[in-house]
Amino acid sequence: MPTVGVKRDLLFKALGRTYTDEEFDELCFEFGLELDEITSEKEIISREQGDSKASGASDTILYKIDVPANRYDLLCLEGLVRGLQVFKNTLEAPRYRRVSPSSGEPQKLVITKETAAVRPHAVAAVLRNITFTQERYDSFIELQEKLHQNICRLRSLVAIGTHDLDTISGPFTYTAKPPGDISFKPLNQTKEYTATQLMSLYKTDSHLRHYLHIIEDKPVYPVIYDSNGIVLSMPPIINGDHSKITLKTKNVFIECTATDVTKAKIVLDMMVTMFSEYCSQPFTVEEAEVVYPDGKTYKYPELAYRKEKLSSEFINRKVGINESTEKIAQLLTRMCLLSQATGVGDEIEVEIPPTRSDIIHACDIMEDAAMAYGFNNIPRTTPRTYTVANQQFVPSLFLGHSCPLRQIVAHLSSLTTLCHHQVARTTLLPGLLKTIAANRKMPLPLKLFEISDVVLKDETKDVGARNSRRFCAVYYNKSPGFEVIHGLLDRTMQLLEVKSVRGDGYHIQAADDSTFFPGRCAEIFVRGKSVGRLGVLHPDVINRFELTMPCSALEMDIEPFL
Amino acid sequence: MADTGVVETLLRLIEKVDDGVDSLEVAASLGVDHQVIVGAVKSLQALGDIISAELRSSKHWELTEEGTEIAEQGSHEARVFSSIPLEGLAQSELMKLSFGKIGFSKAMSNKWIRVDKSHEGGPRIFKTVESIDDQVREKLLLVKKANTAQLEEKEKNELKKRKLLSEVTVKSYWISKGISFSTTITKQETELTPEMVANGSWKEKKFKPYNFEAMGVAPDCGHLHPLMKVRTQFRQIFLEMGFTEMPTNNFIESSFWNFDSLFQPQQHPARDQHDTFFLSDPALAHEFPQDYLERVKKVHSEGGFGSQGYKYDWKIEEAQKNILRTHTTAVSARMLYKLAQQKFTPVKYFSIDRVFRNETLDATHLAEFHQIEGVVADYGLTLGDLMGILHQFFTKLGITKLRFKPAYNPYTEPSMEVFSYHEGLKKWVEVGNSGVFRPEMLLPMGLPEDVSVIAWGLSLERPTMIKYGINNIRELVGHKVNLQMVYDSPICRLDPNTA
After folding, report:
1. Which pTM value belongs to this model?
2. Which residue in A has a C-alpha nearest to residue B348's C-alpha?
3. ipTM of the predicted structure?
4. How far is CA A136 from CA A76, A128, A401, B137, in A?
5. B164-184: per-residue pLDDT in tens?
C-alpha cells in the first residue's frame, strides 16, 4: 500500500478547514485511507540518521497517509484534497479537458522502429502556462516518484520524463541507439557522458541503480531528442540536464515511455489531471501527437470519460440497502463518479472520469456507492445459506509426547536475495532434532512428536508435487529408549485399529539406514507396504545436531490412514 | 524423625523452664552439634503444636584460624620478641621462623627491637625493651571468652582487617511450650497401608498431616503446541457455523491458481520474487483446464463479463510458474471452480493451513504463517451479509465491537478491513480482511451470474500470540520454539465468557 506524506497545515488549508488528528483519522477511515503516522521531517531524519543530523530539519507536522494500491488519483496532495472535498460535498469534481494549442500546431513525438526492441510505446502532453511554487514543484516531483514506484512497477512498465518546453523545440524523436552512440549531460551532472559511461556511473547511485537492469542487457537504449539533437531523456534511467524543470518553468512537456501502453495512458492522465489545476486555464491540458513507426498518429492525453449504465436495484441488492435511485446517484457523485437517474426505470448513468482507472466493472461502482453510504451504516444481516458442515480428518494422537510445531521452510529465501537452501522439507526428523538442540536446558527425557506435511515431487499432479502427511517422534534421554519409540508405534497402530500381525496388520523388520545405528533400525510395514522407519539414531547424526545423548526416533507416512 | 533421645531430652528441658530455651544454649549444654537440636525442633513442629519455636538470629565475633593461633601462642610480634636472646639473633635466622616476616615489621614499628646492619656476619637483631605487653593476644583472648563487649568497635574492626576476627551470624530457635505441649510423643503414621485397611488398625493410629502447600507430582503427559490448540478452536467455530473444511494439502501451487484465477494481474507486485517463493524444481505446472484458462486469459487481457479487463499481454509462461502458495485463497479458487462444474448448490467453506511469503523476518514475521479463511457462496449475498457473518464469527471469538474500513484487494470488490475495538489499547485494531469476490474471478469459472461469494481471512499466529502473551514469533514457530512455553500453556477457550 503506497504511503503519501503531506504537510498537515498545507492539507488543511487546501481542504478549507482544520481537523483534530482524531477527526482526520476518522475521515480517512470512512474514505478507505489510513492515517498511518503523524510525524515531521525532523523526526524522520532523527530516527533514521540520529539526532545530530536532524537539528536543522523542519518540524512542520507531516501526515503519512496510506492509500489503496489502485487509487493513483490519491497519490499527491492535490488529488487527496480533491477526492476528500468531493466526498464531503464541498467541491464539484472538476472536468478535465484536452485542448488544442493556440498556435494550432500540437507538439509531436515521433517514435522510430528501433524502439520496438526495447521500449516500444510513448505518450505525451503539454501543461501550458503553469505556475509552480516550491510546494507545488515538490509535489510534482513526488507524484512522479510515487507513480514510478507503484503502477509503473519501478519504471519497468512506464517511465515519466518532464521537461521545460521553452528550452527545447519539437518535433521530438523517440528512438533507440547503441549505448556508445548516445551522449549527453544528464540531470544534475556537469559534463557529458555516453550511455555506457552512465550505466557504470549509476551502478553506485543508491536511487538509480535499481532501474539499470531494465535496459542494461539490451543492444539499444531508448532516447528522446528534440529537433536540434538535444537529449530530453534516456528512459527509463535519467533525463537530460538541459530541459530540466525549475520553479520558473511555465510550459511543461511530459512524455511517458512504456512497455505497457495502457498503463502509460493512465500515468499520463494522472500527471496532467493532478497538475493542470495550476495552469492559467485550470484543468485544461494541451494535446500532443504521437506518431508510431507505421504512421499511425494518436492524440494524448486521452482524458477519456466513459459512461456506464446500471440500475439502483443492482446496487441495493449487492450492498444490502434500500435507497432511491436519486440518492444512489448522489452517493456516486460524491466519489467523483458524476451520476444521474436517466428516468428510465431505476437506471443510473455513471460517468467514470480519467482519474478513476480503477473502475473497471460495475462491482467497482457498487463499492463506491457503499463507501459513500458508509460501510458501517449498512445493516448487518445473516445469510440464510443452509449447509451441512464436514471436516477433514485430523488424527488426534496424544501420546505423552509434545508437539513443538515447526516451520516447513526453515531457510528458504528468494532467488534474488543471497539464498542458501531452497527446499521445502521432505522429512520431519531434522526439525525435531533442531528443536531438541535449541531446548537442551530442559529436563530429560525429551519426548517430541509432530504430525505435519512434507512436500514430494509427483509427476501425476498438475503442479508436479504433492504434500504427504508424516508422523515423526523422537525420544532423547540418557538411554536410547528404543522400547519407548517402539511402544509409541504399537499404541499408534492400536488407535488406528491396525493389528500386530504380518500381512493384514503391521510389523517391523530389521533394515539398514545410515541415519540409524547399525543393527538398531527397523522398517515399518503396514498391510505389506513400507511406511517408514524407527530406530536408535547413529551417533554421527546425534553429533551433527550438536546433541550429546542417545536418541531414538520414528518417522512414518500416515497418508494411508487419512 | 530426629534422634528420639534428643527430642525427649529437649522436651524435658522445656518442661522445666517457664519461658523457653535457646537452641544454641541447649546444644552447648548437651554437648551436641546445633544442627541436631534444629532437627529435633523441626520434627516436633511437624507433629503439631507441641512446641513453639521462634527463629532468631544474632551476630557475634569469632576468631579466625590465625586468630586462634595467636590467642594460644601470642602475636607474631610477641613471638619474634621472645625468640631473640640477649646476644641478639641474625636477621636471616629470624626470617626462617614461620612468624618471622610479619612479626619483624610489627615488632619494629612497636619499637620492641632494633637492627644492627653493620654487625659482622650480617644484620643482627636485638631487643630494645626488657618486657612487652602483647595486647593483640589479650584482645583475642577476650573474644575467645565471649567478652567482646569489653572491646571497642574500632579495635574489633582493626583485628577484622588483620583477618584475626570475623563476624558471623548465628541462627537459633527460641523454643517454648506449645498449646498441646507434652513430653511424650506418639509415632505418627505417614500413609494408610493395605494392612491397616484390612485389620482396622487405622482406627488407633495417628497420621502425619499432609503439607498442602507443596506441589503435586507432575503427570507424565503430552502437550499440544498453542497454535494447534487455537487452530482447534477456530475449526470448532467454523464447524458450529456449518462450514465445511477444504483440503489444503498442497503447499506447492501454480501461479495460475494462486494469482491468475483470482484476477490478480501478472505485473502485480505480489507476483514479484521479492514477495513470493518461486520453485526451481518442479518449476512449472503442466496441466490446466484449457477452456477455463482461455477465459481467464481473456478477462485479464481484453476484459469481458462486464469488465474492462486489465488490457495487457497475458502470458501462459507466468501462469505456469510454480510457487509456494501465498494464500489459501488458491485452494478456495480450486474449490469454487470445482463447484462451478456441477449444478450449483450453496456452500460454506473454511480452511486453516500454512501459506508462504518472502517477508523480511522479524519478531512478528516469518516466511510462513497459517491463514484462516472462510468462504460463503450463495445466490444474492450482500455486503451486509458479509458484515453479519463476520459479526457472528468474531462474537464466537469474544470480539463483539466491529467496524469496517474500505480497502483494496485485487480479487475482492468491495473489500473491507475488519477492525475491532481493543479495550486494553483503547483503540481500533485490524483483526482481519474480507470482501466479495470479483465477477472477473467467478464468472470465468462458470458460476451463475447471480451467485455472490463472500470471504474473509486472518492469521492464526496473531491471535495465538495475543492469547498466550508471546512477543517473539520465533518462540512460537520454528525449531527455536520454547518447549517450556509448550509445556506450560493452558487450554484455549475463545468463547466470550472467558476471553
Report:
1. 0.79
2. A387
3. 0.89
4. 10, 15, 66, 96
5. 888 888 788 888 888 777 777
